[in-house]
Write a structure and sequence with these properties.
Strand order of the largest sheet: 1-9-8-2-5-3-4
Strand content: 5-15%
Radius of gyration: 19 Å
Order of helices and strands: HHHHHEHEHEHEHEEEHEEHHH
Helix content: 40-55%
Distance between the termini: 24 Å
Shape: globular
Largest sheet: 7 strands, mixed
């Protein structure tokens, strides 16, 4: 992104933070739907990518069904943004009331063990709302890692916003964040990482909906190195303002094998849990980027996003990088 596009993207999100949070909730929801409908009708690269990804998740879907899913997906994606802009102004009681997490006893028991917990999530529904729920309802602060966004002022906005909700946000710079995450876990802390898309060259190849993809090794490596409990979690939207989720059973460290082999087995188990949640609620999976290895190989120098697409795609929702 050039400087002009940096300013455009930062300005758009600045308007969102300043304006949307002041709107009545129904008005903000209606605005999000209008923006989603406009973006969907444009049939830009972000929407086409989303449909391509959904075609792998729902392989028997007709073209008409894929269009329905991508339309619902864009509305879900913009619901995420409208909610996130408003989260800092919401009463904390809302987080417990609006979020219902199935099997949250698994998380509570893991935290009570004192081993530390790594929760790995895909880009389903509203990760920030789930984080606010964890801080207020479970009563445990947590640490995450965010990829540095451009422009830098946009990254600073996200960090300040998430810290206002009770999260500790570490920048992803090389491997520096891994040591801090390990220290938090060894002290019995909670680490939450969005982990369905690899942003490094060290991703683990997994089978994901029948094709090869790469997912981050960080959650599995942290669990091995610190003894922490690794818990996949998935989310989905109900009728506004409700959001639902599920804490999956722990991913155990295999008893045999090299560290690389153990990491591969554990990351595949996380991918399988993600696939289960995504297949049940594909419209809430906000994956507007290429994910599968076969799709990544098709990228060309001319396959770039416009400023408008960037504002709802790669420069939009920040990536939480699991070290």
């Amino acid at each position: 992104m050039g400087k002009a596009q940096d300013k455009l993207v930062d300005g758009l999100y600045g308007l969102g933070w300043a304006g949307v949070k002041k709107l009545p909730e129904p008005a903000a929801a209606a605005l999000g739907r209008r923006i989603a409908d406009f973006a969907w009708k444009r049939r830009g690269k972000s929407v086409l990518r989303l449909e391509s990804n959904l075609a792998r998740v729902v392989p028997d879907a007709t073209p008409e069904r894929l269009r329905e899913l991508s339309h619902a997906g864009m509305r879900s994606y913009m619901r995420y943004w409208m909610e996130s802009f408003r989260l800092p102004t919401m009463a904390k009681e809302r987080f417990s009331a609006d979020v219902e997490m199935k099997d949250d006893h698994i998380l509570r028991e893991a935290l009570a063990s004192g081993r530390g917990v790594v929760v790995a999530l895909p880009h389903l529904a509203n990760w920030d709302l789930a984080g606010a729920w964890a801080v207020t309802h479970i009563g445990v602060p947590f640490t995450t890692v965010a990829e540095r966004l451009k422009p830098e002022t946009l990254y600073d906005r996200f960090v300040a916003y998430r810290e206002s909700l009770g999260m500790e946000v570490l920048p992803h710079e090389g491997g520096a964040a891994f040591g801090t995450l390990a220290r938090r876990l060894r002290s019995g802390g909670l680490v939450c990482l969005v982990a369905d898309r690899d942003l490094s060259a060290s991703g683990v190849e997994v089978d994901f909906f029948g094709s090869a993809a790469r997912m981050p090794a960080g959650p599995a490596l942290l669990a091995q190195q610190t003894g922490a409990v690794l818990l996949p979690a998935t989310l989905y939207y109900g009728d506004a303002p409700k959001m639902y989720g599920r804490i999956h059973h722990p991913v155990e460290v295999p008893g045999n094998g090299t560290r690389q082999e153990k990491t591969a087995v554990m990351t595949q188990a996380v991918a399988d849990a993600f696939a289960e949640g995504i297949a049940e609620h594909p419209q809430d999976w906000h994956m507007l980027q290429r994910l599968w290895i076969g799709d990544l190989r098709q990228t060309t120098d001319t396959d770039t996003d416009s400023a408008t697409d960037s504002a709802t795609d790669t420069a939009g929702r920040p990536e939480e990088h699991p070290a």
